[in-house]
Design goal:
The chain is an alpha/beta fold. The protein has 22 helices and 23 strands. The chain has an eight-stranded parallel beta sheet with strand order 20-17-14-11-10-23-22-21. A five-stranded mixed beta sheet has the order 3-9-8-5-6. The radius of gyration is 26 Å and the shape is globular. The N and C termini lie far apart (61 Å).
Length: 690
């Protein structure tokens, strides 16, 4: 090894950048020096320094004592310490460090506290429960099932061309009557109002706010009061637009957005004049929401107003990187002047978020009224779009010259570059994990369960330097114990079950840590095989898991059976050569036979494969002891195309695909009724509260 490489590797060790990795076939790959240098540069020269007397964050068990914190001090003088508790309380004491460790005997309640050590500095303490929250309905063998879907894909007789929060409420009521206790959704994160065609929910502008295109416009209180809005909506021309949007085979995001924003503008103008100016109860509710959401909401709304302005002047402006330099700093004078001069426009975007939270909260409350075991099961994307509001408002927290992805594997032989900037682990700790905490709270606040996409990212993420191939990336490590402690604490505070999406290459350390804190594993039938490639019997599935047939970025049952996914990947050039395609095509034929054998062994062979396969496969999964089972509506209804092909983000049209049946028809469809009857035994045990 050259001296230059040795110095580089020492620097990478300081930063948590692994200099090599093993692929799924067991081969070791040394990361190229160019990649290591590029990734190290994302941290800045000050990162990784060892001079701090105290760590910026310390995770510990709530109620445990004594607990210990590493310190760096000159000499062995007694150290006076003070803990400012989250509830305003205060603890004080004194002690001596031994071997660089200070022991403190004060047990702490769950929460975020602040430790100050005289002469040495301060540390944020995360006092967390031992395990994540779990509902009583899952005790004593309790199990729960429910549908999973992409919310935008719902058709209905009343929506405006894409599924909305009103459709979601109706779906909850429809399937709850059939025994469902959980409802899985794609991420509901804020996207890009100026560019509605940017449709991937996994490439959001912000993970801290909601996608306002899911608003049920006519359910907003102002819509019943605003004469101009009612006249517009009731006009023949507008109703014709809505009918065309509903009838479209794909979601016309641009058309939906144009219709909704045209009315939303009128509703906000009405709210401003009738309520906000008057300072009445509704105005106070809005101002309370704005104060509660604070700077995170304000900066997002500012971003929306600025992006709207610059995009209207120049449609090639896709994000803050293309703005005039003075506006790229959210704390700069130009942005402050804009906020003062355009206060009503900023308030408009805050109003949209207010209404979105009201409507999502309404669905969450309905789940509670129906006594559902879990209710909404939401999804937290792994990161954000680098052109969006989170990256603008917190750009020093993101490695903007790198992307999250995955190394080559059987699923994608070229590897994957998701185009999303990773959070910097050093800045996460220095800021007390503000962005991570806020993202968890937003996702959990109205949910009974949360899926952490690519949960391995709590320990390490695969970073790819800008311009490099996915195979030339490197793993960057995060403070796993900090991340898990925060996850457990927020899980309890929000009463939210946690599911870790642990597909793919997952270090044993991550699986063990997730099991230790009580998260559920994420198990899909496609990957549950024995050493010979046969599908595992249901009894062999783990108890501490969520099970499903497939997910949004894997083939639907019908698509898998027909090999449509292989043809799609072939057409997009995702196979290195024709031989790779032919090998997987032959393997799929063998897998179809394996699936039929597994069903036959379980006594579930379908009489007609085309009509009976979905029911048989889900009955097979229902035989597993796992705590939660999800049913993709696309699989029940025979949809061939999967929602997304990883690595294509918005290039692939399936983020626009609607379900083949309308909401009003789904509940009474023969396949739905048969499946619900099959799954009727997956309920909480008698006498257990939901």
């Amino acid at each position: 090894m050259s001296e230059a490489r040795a110095l580089l590797e020492r620097r990478c060790a300081q930063l948590g950048i692994a200099t090599g990795w093993h692929d799924i076939w067991g081969r070791y790959h040394e990361v190229p020096e160019a990649s290591l240098r590029a990734l190290a540069a994302e941290f800045g020269p000050e990162a990784g320094a060892q001079g701090a007397a105290l760590p910026p964050v310390l995770a510990l068990r709530a109620g445990a004592a004594p607990w210990r914190i590493p310190v760096r001090q000159d000499g062995d003088a007694a150290l006076r310490w003070t803990i400012a508790l989250e509830d305003g309380g205060r603890l004080e004491g004194e002690g001596r460090a031994a071997d660089g460790v200070l022991e403190i005997g004060a047990p702490l309640p769950p929460g975020y506290h602040r430790l100050s050590v005289e002469w040495l500095g301060e540390t944020q303490l995360v006092a967390a429960p031992e395990r994540c929250w779990r509902p009583a309905a899952l005790d004593n063998g309790g199990r729960v099932w429910g549908p999973a879907l992409q919310l935008y894909a719902l058709r209905s007789a009343r929506n405006w061309g894409m599924g909305d929060f009103g459709d979601l409420r109706a779906l909850v009521e429809q399937w709850a009557a059939r025994g469902a206790g959980v409802f899985g959704l794609n991420p509901l994160h804020a996207l890009f109002p100026h560019n509605p065609a940017h449709a991937s929910p996994y490439s959001p502008s912000s993970r801290l706010l909601l996608n306002v295109l899911y608003l049920e416009v006519e359910a907003i209180e102002d819509c019943t009061e605003c004469d101009a809005a009612r006249r517009l909506i009731g006009s023949d021309a507008f109703q014709a637009r809505l009918a065309a949007l509903r009838a479209a085979e794909m979601v016309d995001y641009t058309g939906v957005a144009a219709a909704k924003f045209e009315v939303l503008e009128l509703l906000f103008e009405h709210f401003w004049q009738r309520h906000l100016v008057a300072g009445d109860a509704r105005a106070r509710a809005f101002l309370e929401f704005r104060a509660r959401r604070g700077e995170l909401l304000r900066r997002h709304a500012l971003y929306e107003a600025l992006q709207e302005r610059f995009h209207r002047a120049d449609p090639s402006v896709t994000g803050w990187q293309s703005w005039p330099e003075a506006y790229r700093d959210p704390a700069g004078e130009a942005v402050a002047r804009f906020a003062l001069g355009h206060a009503p426009r900023v308030a408009y975007f805050e109003y949209l978020q207010w209404q979105a939270e009201i409507q999502l909260a309404r669905v969450g409350r309905r789940c509670g009224e129906l006594g559902l075991a879990l209710g909404l099961y939401l999804d937290l994307a792994v990161s954000v779009d680098r052109a969006g509001s989170d990256a603008w408002a917190h750009r020093d927290c993101y490695a903007l010259g790198a992307s999250v992805g995955a190394p080559p594997d059987d699923f994608n032989l070229h590897g994957q570059d998701w185009g999303l900037p990773p959070l910097r682990p050093d800045r996460l700790r220095e800021t007390g994990y503000e962005l991570y905490v806020s993202a968890l709270r937003e996702a959990m606040s109205h949910a009974g369960a949360l899926r952490i996409d690519h949960v391995m990212g709590l320990m390490r993420l695969y970073w790819i330097p800008e311009g490099a191939e996915p195979a030339d990336g490197a793993y960057v490590h995060y403070a796993l114990e900090d991340m898990l402690a925060i996850l457990a604490l927020e899980s309890h505070r929000n009463r939210c079950l946690v599911i870790g999406e642990d597909l793919g290459t997952v270090p044993d350390e991550v699986r063990a840590a997730l099991a230790r804190i009580g998260t559920l594993s994420y198990r899909l039938l496609w990957f549950e095989r024995d050493g010979a490639g046969e599908f595992r019997p249901p009894a062999d599935f783990p108890r501490e898991a969520l099970v499903a047939l497939s997910t949004h970025d894997l083939p639907t049952l019908a698509g898998w059976w027909k090999g449509t996914d292989l043809e799609l990947r072939r057409g997009l050039g995702l196979f290195p050569d024709e031989a790779a395609y032919q090998r997987l095509h032959a393997g799929r034929a063998a897998d179809r036979e394996r699936l039929l054998r597994a069903l036959e062994r379980a006594g579930l062979s379908p009489q007609e494969v085309e009509d009976g396969l979905a029911e048989a496969v889900h009955a097979y999964l229902a035989g597993a002891p796992s705590r939660v089972m999800m049913v993709q509506l696309e699989d029940v209804l025979g949809v061939v195309e999967q929602a997304n092909l990883p690595g294509t983000i918005d290039e692939h049209p399936n983020w626009r695909r609607k379900l083949p049946l309308a909401l009003e028809e789904i509940g009474d469809a023969p396949r739905t009724a048969a499946l619900a009857a099959r799954l009727s035994n997956l309920r909480p045990p008698p006498g257990r509260p939901a």
